[in-house]
Design brief:
This protein is 34% helix and 19% strand. It has 194 residues and is of the alpha+beta class.
Length: 194
C-alpha cells in the first residue's frame, strides 16, 4: 500500500487553485486608470506639526545645532526639539530655546503655552523662506518669541528675524543673536554638508 503525505495533497491543491486564479485575474478587463494624479495628501506628521517631513540633511543640521548650543550654553538655556507650540494654526519649530529650568513631568501640557526666547526652523526642500518668515511674524512673535532663526542649507546660511523687523544674515563667521547673546560658528553648523 502506498502512503501519500496529506501535506503533499494539500500543497498540490493549493498550486492548482493558484493557477486557476492567475488565469482568471488576467482574462478580465482591467479598468482604465485616471490620467490625472490624485492630489497629494499630507502625512500625519505634516498635519500635526504644520511642516513637511524632514530629510537626512535637515536632521543632521538640527542635531548639529542642538549639540553646538548645548555644549556651550547648556548651563543657561534649554534647547528643546520638535516642541508643539500653542499657536493657531499649530506649529512645531525644529528647535526652541528657553531659559534653563526644571521640567515638571506631572504637569506639562501637550502644547507649550510659554513662548520660547528663540525658534529655529530649518528650510525643507518643499518650503520657502517667505513661508518661514511669515510663520515667525504671524505665529511666533505674537506669542512673545524674541528671535527666529531660519536655516537655509542650500546656501549654508542662517537668517535671524527679529520682531522689530531687523533681519540679520550669517553665511560665515559667528552668528550673534541679539535676543539671547548666543553665538554660533556658522561653518560648524554646516560642516557635514558638501
Amino acid at each position: 500500500m502506498l502512503w501519500v503525505c496529506p501535506f503533499n495533497l494539500i500543497f498540490g491543491e493549493i498550486i492548482k487553485h493558484l493557477a486557476m486564479l492567475k488565469e482568471d485575474v488576467f482574462t478580465e478587463d482591467i479598468p482604465a486608470v485616471e490620467e490625472a494624479a490624485a492630489p497629494a495628501t499630507l502625512s500625519d506628521y505634516e498635519t500635526e506639526r504644520n511642516k513637511p517631513m524632514p530629510n537626512r540633511i535637515h536632521g543632521a543640521i538640527q542635531s548639529q545645532i542642538g549639540f553646538l548650543l548645548k555644549s556651550v550654553y547648556g548651563d543657561k538655556y534649554q534647547f528643546i526639539s520638535e516642541l508643539a507650540l500653542d499657536t493657531t494654526p499649530g506649529s512645531t519649530p525644529d528647535i526652541c530655546i528657553f531659559p534653563k529650568k526644571k521640567l515638571d513631568v506631572k504637569n506639562t501640557p501637550a502644547k507649550e503655552t510659554e513662548a520660547p526666547l528663540t525658534t529655529i526652523e530649518i528650510i525643507s526642500p518643499s518650503q520657502t523662506f517667505n513661508e518661514l518668515m511669515h510663520k515667525a511674524w504671524d505665529l511666533y512673535f505674537p506669542m512673545g518669541v524674541k528671535s527666529a532663526w531660519i536655516v537655509v542649507p542650500e546656501v549654508k546660511a542662517i537668517h535671524i528675524i527679529m520682531p522689530g523687523g531687523d533681519n540679520l544674515y550669517f553665511a560665515s563667521g559667528k552668528l550673534k543673536d541679539p535676543a539671547t547673546g548666543i553665538e554660533v560658528p556658522v561653518e560648524r553648523v554646516f560642516e557635514d554638508l558638501l
